[in-house]
Amino acid sequence: MTELYIIRHGQTAANVAGLKQGTIDDERTYLSETGIAQAKELAGALDLTGFAALYHSPLHRTVETAQIVNQTAHLPMVADDRLLEISYGDWDGQLNADLMTKYPDLFDPLINDVRASYAPVANGESFASVEARVQAFTEEVAKAHPDKRVAVVTHGFTVRSFAINATQSHDLTILEPANCSVTKILVDPTSGDQHLVYYNRSASPAF
Asked: Does residue 150 contact residue 52 with C-beta atoms inside 8 Å?
């Protein structure tokens, strides 16, 4: 089995402000001081020594997180566009609260997040599209690193898509994980079968 350790990036100013970050990549979406501290704490708790590789989204917040958690192991770092965050299209960079007020039918009021039906209205990426590119990445990486441990640094919705695929769930049955949390998935490199070992595990649990 290939072991994937999937890390969400550290906190950003946009996270705190409640913006739809999507694929925007400017100073609002760089790691905050808290985000840097989270990544350093995770680096002390998760030793990547002996891992085969570290894959990451090309956006700044994931690159910076990956560099911090990789300071000891010095793994080869590989950027992969399939690990990008979902693009909310016209909604990227907008306040989630404002969007909820304007488009209440496109949000789940219990969790304050978009429903899958948002995509045509926002000209955004569909949930299914993210899950498909994550699935392709998972299968390819498992075959490239059979019976190895692999680190992946990506985004909240993308991490959720890994878990959705592994559990064969749908839409909002699994919620976004916390910043700098780790999700572990086992993948059979031959059959492609996946097993979710744990989800949203943090270096500093707050129960």
From this structure: yes
Tokens of 67: 């560099």
H helices of 22-86, where?
33-45, 60-69
At 33, which amino acid appears?
Answer: E
DSSP 52: S
Task: Report the run of H or E that residue 141 belongs to, with start and end.
Answer: helix 127-144
pLDDT tens, residue by residue, 86-120: 999 999 999 999 999 999 999 998 898 999 999 99
Choose among 79, 192, 65, 176: nearest CA to 136.
192
Return all residues near 130 (Cβ < 8 A) that are at least 6 apart.
86, 157, 158, 161
Identify the pLDDT of residue 205. 66
CA dihedral 195, 173, 155, 124 (to 10 degrees): 130
Distance CA(20)–CA(76), nearest Å, equals: 30
